[in-house]
Design brief:
The complex is a heterodimer. By secondary structure, chain A is an alpha+beta fold. Helix content of chain A is about 30%, strand content about 35%. In chain A, the strands form 2 sheets. A 4-stranded antiparallel sheet of chain A has the order 2-5-1-6. In chain A, strands 3-4 form a two-stranded antiparallel sheet. In chain A, strand 3 and strand 4 form a beta hairpin. The longest helix of chain B is centred in the N-terminal third of the chain and has 27 residues. Chains A and B meet through helix 2 and helix 3 of A and helix 20 and helix 21 of B.
Chain lengths: ~130, ~450
């Protein structure tokens, strides 16, 4: 089964990325985590995301476009990255989520991935 | 004086513990008779609810436990009468009445006293929770819920399982017990060791969930279940005084618990076992553990938990003599891998070998573990941490660094992560790399 691991980081943790006294440990921890996922053969994909301030959010409402600087929601914890993993069940996914560095300071969301969409022909039938 | 000086949370915990003790004792009696844990839980919950409304009005009964038991049994009977789902409902009700009218029960007037006169059916309940027909991963959760009355959400957190999933598994397990008619009894002599092993494993697993908690002023109501596991281990020794493995488990948990104050430095840094300040180990717990180990040895039936406890004891001799008898530890691990060849035992044995046969031999032992069937080391953090340590001692720094990185990636505890990262960055450049002459 495929699961997404969504990494929600606190402002303090995100700030560590650019803090000379903290960034060594910060990046080492995430690099090690990614390597462990890969070497255990469970990593399917994933990416680290730039800081929330680098985000742009778009909405279309009643024909009007709204484009805002910043992330989707102004929450205390922000999405910092995600992993896609292939494991037998949710229990295993949670084990891996617990190893994510953000688990002890922020939050880690685990959500099953939808099965791939059907063929193009099938998916146009409504 | 005690009342004035103990904080409200301690008093609350004491009250909770008392309720917990009653809960398990009562549930065990009801469930053992009806063999339907879920129905027993509901009946008992109803009885507690009834107590909350009636006792303020009518006063607390002189024997609250007996009151709860009678009330719960009455509710169970009524529920049985109302459930007309099967054709033989009338027969069921009759059987239930007969069962509830058996030993330990009575009319409201002639209730048996508390304590020894109530049959302690918790042992039967523990054994049925560890029945081979119950999936191993559910056993711990089941025991904690039915014997201690712990909230399922809390159990789920501690065991790192989604609450919904755990709820479903517990439900299915109780159905299994009821529908398959699993016996509520202490197994016969031949089957006892294996079944007891399963019970002890489940309690040990519960203890492990409380291992990574912060020490300083940590709220013991948080995710971990160390206190509950210690309590269950003590209960098992009380209920099975002639079983050395029960004492072995209790000793193991006590030794481990004794080290809790020493496991973290003042700033929360991780402190490995051999570097711990033995002055911070809790002497009273160690003494209790030694007592259990001695009592177990007198019963002359060796087992894996006794061996693990003995290994802990050997490590903690350092408090008394200033050193650890490495030969003894290595020997104990040899015994352990023969009796209980788990991944943990194999890795522990390899670590012990390093001190008596050198790092190369230990590394060879580790490599051998990786090749064993059913030994999945890929996500087993202690394997990689040990491997890194051994490679570093053998001056194979590049490989050590890789192993450290792997170990870091498998850590849950940020303090351990930091410790390993520091070790990795302290490594010199690889001595085996060719150096330019000049």
């Amino acid at each position: 089964m495929q699961f997404s691991i969504l990494v929600y980081e606190t402002q303090s943790e995100l700030a560590a990325r650019n803090d000379a006294s903290r960034q060594g440990e910060y990046w080492a921890a995430y690099t090690a985590y990614s390597r462990a996922l890969a070497e255990a053969g469970v990593m399917v994909g994933g990416a680290g995301l730039q800081q929330p301030v680098a985000a742009t959010t778009l909405r279309l409402r009643a024909g009007k476009r709204q484009v805002q600087d910043g992330p989707f929601a102004d929450t205390k914890e922000q999405l910092g990255g995600f992993f896609l993993i292939e494991v037998p069940d949710l229990d295993k996914a949670l084990e891996w989520a617990a190893r994510c560095p953000a688990a002890s300071t922020g939050s880690v969301e685990v959500r099953p991935v939808l099965p791939p969409p059907p063929s193009a022909a099938a998916s146009t039938r409504v | 004086m005690a009342a004035a000086s103990s904080p409200p949370s301690a008093a609350l915990r004491a009250a909770e513990r008392a309720a917990r003790e009653s809960y398990g004792r009562l549930l065990a009696i009801i469930a053992a008779r009806s063999r339907d844990i879920a129905a027993a839980e509901e009946a008992l919950a109803g009885a507690f609810e009834a107590a909350l409304t009636q006792w303020p009005r009518e006063g607390v009964p002189s024997r609250p436990d007996a009151w709860l038991l009678t009330t719960a049994r009455r509710r169970l009977l009524d529920a049985g009468r109302r459930a007309r789902v099967r054709e033989d409902a009338a027969e069921q009700v009759a059987a239930l009445q007969e069962a509830l009218g058996g030993e330990g029960a009575a009319s409201p007037e002639g209730l048996p006293g508390e304590g020894p006169t109530f049959p302690d059916a918790r042992l039967k309940l523990l054994f049925v929770c560890a029945h081979p027909a119950i999936a191993p991963e559910v056993r711990t959760a089941l025991m904690l819920q039915v014997v201690l009355g712990l909230d399922a959400a809390r159990i789920a957190s501690a065991l790192l399982v989604a609450p919904k999933t755990l709820g479903q598994r517990l439900w299915r397990a109780k159905l299994r017990i009821r529908d398959a008619g699993l016996a509520f009894e202490v197994p016969e002599r031949e089957a006892l060791p294996a079944r007891l092993g399963a019970v002890l494993e489940a309690v040990y697993a519960a203890y492990g969930t409380g291992w990574d908690e912060d020490v300083e002023g940590g709220d013991t109501r948080r995710a971990g279940l160390a206190e509950e596991a210690l309590w269950l281990a003590r209960l098992l020794v009380e209920l099975l005084p002639e079983e050395p493995e029960a004492r072995g488990l209790r000793a193991l948990l006590l030794f481990t618990e004794a080290r809790r104050p020493a496991r973290r430095g003042p700033a929360g840094a991780y402190v490995p076992l051999d570097a711990q300040d033995t002055g911070r180990w809790v002497g009273a717990l160690m003494a209790e553990a030694e007592g259990e180990l001695r009592a177990a040895a007198a019963l002359k039936r060796l087992g894996p938990f006794q061996l693990e406890a003995a290994i802990q004891s050997a490590h903690m001799e350092r408090a008394r003599t200033g050193r650890v008898d490495r030969q003894a530890v290595a020997l104990l691990y040899e015994g352990l891998v023969r009796l209980a060849p788990t991944l943990g035992a194999h890795v522990g044995r390899a670590a012990a070998l390093a001190a008596v046969q050198g790092e190369a031999a230990a590394l060879a032992a580790l490599d051998a573990v990786r090749g064993m069937e059913e030994m999945d080391v890929e996500a087993y953090q202690p394997y990689w941490a040990l491997r890194a340590h051994l490679l570093a001692r053998l001056d194979r720094y590049a490989q050590a660094r890789e192993a450290y990185v792997r170990a870091v990636g498998l850590c849950e505890d940020p303090a351990v992560r930091r410790f390993l990262l520091e070790r990795a960055s302290a490594l010199p450049e690889d001595a085996t790399l060719p150096r330019a002459r000049g």
